[in-house]
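Quick one: co-fold with guanosine-5'-diphosphate.
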Amino acid sequence: MPTQSPRWYSAHARKTDVAIQNCRNIGIIAHIDAGKTTTTERMLHYAGFTRRIGGMPIKSKDVDSGDTIMDYMKQERERGITITSAAITFGWKTHRINLIDTPGHVDFTIEVERSIRVLDGAVTILDAVAGVEAQTETVWQQATRQGIPRIAFVNKMDRAGAGFGRTVREMRTRLGCRPVVVQIPLMESPSGASRVGSNDAQFAGVVDVLTMETLRWDSEFSGTKITRSLLDASYPDQTLYQEAVKARIALVEQLSALDENIIELFLTLENHMAIETKDLQAAIRRLTLSSIIVPVLCGASFRNIGVQPLIDSVVDYLPSPDDRPATLARLPDGKVAEIGVGGLKERLCALAFKVIHDAKRGPMVFVRVYAGQLNERTQLWNSSTHSKERANKLLQMYAMDVEEIPHITKGNIGVILGLKDTRTGDTLLDAHDPRKGLTLSGIKVPSPVFFASVEPMSTSDEKPVEEAIKALIREDPSLGMRVDEETGQTLLGGMGELHLEVAMERMLSDFKVKAEMGKMRISYKETMKGPGIVSKLLSWEYDREILGKRGRARAGVSVERLERSEDGGESTSSEGRECGSANTGSEEHDGNEIVITLADKADADAVTEMIPLSEMVLPSGSTDLPIPVLRTAVRNGILSALSRGPLLGYAQTHLKVRLAALHLYGTESTPAAISSCVSAAVTEAIRLGGDPST
Ligand code: GDP
Ligand code: MG
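Sure, here it is.
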């Protein structure tokens, strides 16, 4: 491997406009302790960002001490590198890699889901001793659901009891993927003779099965120097050679079964060893991009072994933003459209995937640009909150420092400073974009289920506490705040106990507020009596005078209780899942499903291919309001009804609400009247479908 000066790499990363094909947005997914932090540190080091590798080799953490998320956060902070930043950029050869942080704890599954959303590819780190662990499985399934191509790194190969083959088998059986081994461990007995997998042997490097080379890392320069030597029949250790040949044959056989080009080459050359590295690489890239295979590498980050080939593989096998399917966004009329396919004239569309409160800079909004280009000092439109924003400054985050940049190009990730209301999950457009209600689909924010009171130490602490909670909610919308109507206490809500503890810890340490947390309690969400129950209310008349003006509308709705599925987040109805598919008018909100298939006659003809005519709702009566305005009014009505249950006022969950009919009375049917009518109809239908005894 040509040794390039680390400075060269970092200099390259600063060329803001790297071609989109040379950009990689990746995340590392792993069970806690698999070595995510260590591997990240080493990556940054080899990319030229840290002068010295932090704490090497540091004493191993006591696994039995109970690794809570607090230790974990403190530990990451104490290491001094900003790897807790939501995303950092570094250069590798001619590529730019944006490494996006994915939290490692189950309580933060929402956070993981949200950060996976902006990844184009992921590196899975496995502990060679522990193999596939619980959290590996959870995060793996999330990545599968979102169609994220992955490569795997079997880490800690230096530990006693490390099992490379066993871990690969577990990937097959427990993760249900097709691992393709591109490296095997190079074991060496202390006497010097290399042996694959022998008992007294030590992990000394890796064998590259594609190039048939051994790779060894120097220990003097923290693994910066790699020595490659060819592994052929003349190699002194014949056992190693045979192992490598076996792995090479297995690799070619696997690829032949999946890739036409490789089978053709194999039929021509009739030799597993003769197929060129570049052809194998190209096939592995194709198959990885379509998530058919998962290339597997190995190493020991802590011993500085195996990290550079891992970064090479990120570049070689993981997708650029251009290799990904077109991004989907929801238009104000409920239809789904592809964005980012407009070439040069493309309008800006960016996703705020993380908001971090910074004591010096204020809120830092991490964005990924999906279409167009985001320029500094421009007016933006937040289509999720419907408010204007201004991007004062744009930043690129590196490991040790920050650079101000003039723009964030398509496919890239950066930070906006100066935004006032933007929250995690919001969509940002150009202020002049006529598509005011266009939002990127994909990030669901569930409402909190655990609550705890937050008690300010004194009255002068009340305001800071409230402000800290608000800032935290902007960062993490799955947190919530509410005032207990009986006691007047401020309640902080979250997804689990640890989630609340971390939030509290952050209030004390980052926001320096003086407060205490009270006892934890669970909030029960309301829903209808049993799964599959449908409550229909086909004609609900609304007629009321507000400020001397008459408001009228008539709506029909049906409400169905959805099945709770095992993996928690998702729900299915007896009519099957139709969420998210184009033009069905269906959307998911807070564990509920909302179906509004409103259309006018022309529209109905156009979309009946997607939806049977019997399911379309054509408004009767008369109105001047266009369909999108009607749809928004209906949607607002449904959301308002779902936000407060008829029994105890808790938010509703697991309901499928469908608009069944809408009758309008000309100018008396204002959007407000329509919303009120629909809201009352839904509330009544839920009440009718609820348990009569309560
Ligand atoms: P994370 O929780 O996934 O971020 O894992 P860390 O990077 O914090 O590593 C967890 C523990 O495993 C730490 O004590 C590391 O020093 C140790 N560790 C990480 N990589 C290796 C490795 O390659 N070999 C060995 N023996 N220990 C490692
Ligand atoms: Mg870590």
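If it helps, Residues 528-693 form a domain with the Ribosomal Protein S5; domain 2 fold (CATH 3.30.230.10).
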